[in-house]
Amino acid sequence: MDTILVTGGAGFVGSHVCKALSRSGKKFVVYDNLARGNRAAVQWCDLVVGDLSDRNLLQETIERHSVKSVIHFAALAYVRESILYPNMYWQNNVSGTKNLLDVMAETGVRHIVFSSSCASYGVPDDVPIHIDCDQNPITPYGRTKLACEWMIQDYARQNEWSYAILRYFNVTGNDPDLDIGEVHEPETHIVPIILLNSLNFHQEPVPIFGGTLPTADGTCVRDFIHVTDLASVHVKALEHIVATNVSAVFNVGLGKGTSVLELLKVCEEVTKKRIPYQMANPNPGDPPCLVADPGKVWTALNLNPRYTEIKTMVEHTWQWIQNKRPAWIKLKQQSIDSGSVC
Ligand SMILES: NC(=O)c1ccc[n+]([C@@H]2O[C@H](COP(=O)([O-])OP(=O)(O)OC[C@H]3O[C@@H](n4cnc5c(N)ncnc54)[C@H](O)[C@@H]3O)[C@@H](O)[C@H]2O)c1
């Protein structure tokens, strides 16, 4: 059976996709430098610890495992960090992706699914955001994602590859079985940030960036998608481009907006605790409203999202945070202390 290379498969989204690949009987191998990922998240295949900058190791991995397609998650993915260190983002995300594409071309790998982002749109003229909306990213992170989209399209044209570019909106939720889950130190996504705060004895107020934005309650509006549904999209998208040899670009969201204040109320309902918050100035990298027009993604891939309620997404993250995340944090700390990668 042909093997799929999953770059960044030790990370949050990548590990959920690995579980979905395993459930659909696929053979795959994870390639991850573990800078932001977790060894414990790689449960269904071999892990090659390596960086996208290491072309020899990439080539050796592709050849040794007879890789025929790639799902490419490996990237730095924090908007605010990218504003502080744009060089790091261009080096890791864009040079790293160029290495990967060069090695794919050299080894004859012809299919790639790429994790792009709604950050590639910048501040959209129209909401919901249609797939053909202009892409004018306003942060280095968003610009690196757009640069990678263009690079993939150019390599694909030259080498006759097929690709799926998936522009995700806000990914949240958790594997409901709690086999895997989100562990970043520190957490950067809004749902775990709010939920972790509710566990904090001292309860520092959660900073809510906004208050004066042109939205109904003045805070950012986002389109949340459950990571398990996003994982199914990857499996189907890969099957689709391999079977048809036709490329596709999809917005992956539900087309439903939830404001950060609404989200906070849902978190209070789920945790049954009051969660104090404090309004802070809007962030330069945060467009007021990012809601997808998911258009054809669900029909084209013959899928239905399973978890469409924000409350369910928050419940799954809450279960993970209470039951499994502490042990994973301990593991991560032990491997940092012992000097090995986690
Ligand atoms: N999580 C979201 O809400 C979201 C939204 C839109 C797009 N995305 C994209 O989805 C992908 C996965 O995001 P995530 O939230 O799982 O992030 P993550 O940080 O949890 O996972 C990324 C993984 O890539 C690995 N990695 C990074 N640079 C690498 C390199 N040079 N070589 C090898 N491995 C490397 C990290 O160690 C980590 O395991 C990213 O490309 C991100 O830009 C995520």
Based on secondary structure, the structural category is: alpha/beta
Task: Give the percentage of residues in beta strands.
Answer: 15-25%
**Poorly predicted parts:** none
How would you name the CATH homologous superfamily of the domain at 3-169 and 226-253 and 293-306?
A: NAD(P)-binding Rossmann-like Domain
- Counting DSSP E segments of at least 2 residues, the number of strands comes to 14
Topology of helices and strands:
Elements: E1 3-7, H1 12-23, E2 27-32, E3 46-49, H2 55-64, E4 67-72, H3 79-84, H4 86-107, E5 111-117, H5 140-159, E6 162-168, E7 170-172, H6 190-199, E8 206-209, E9 221-222, E10 224-226, H7 227-244, E11 248-252, E12 258-259, H8 260-271, E13 277-280, E14 289-290, H9 297-300, H10 310-323, H11 325-337
Parallel strand pairs: 1-2, 1-4, 2-3, 4-5, 5-6, 6-11, 7-10, 8-13, 9-14
Antiparallel strand pairs: 9-12
Helix pairs in contact: 1-7, 2-4, 4-5, 6-8, 6-10, 8-10
The structure holds nicotinamide-adenine-dinucleotide (NAD).
Nicotinamide-adenine-dinucleotide is lined by residues 8, 10-14, 32-37, 51-52, 73-77, 92, 96, 115, 117, 168, 170-171.
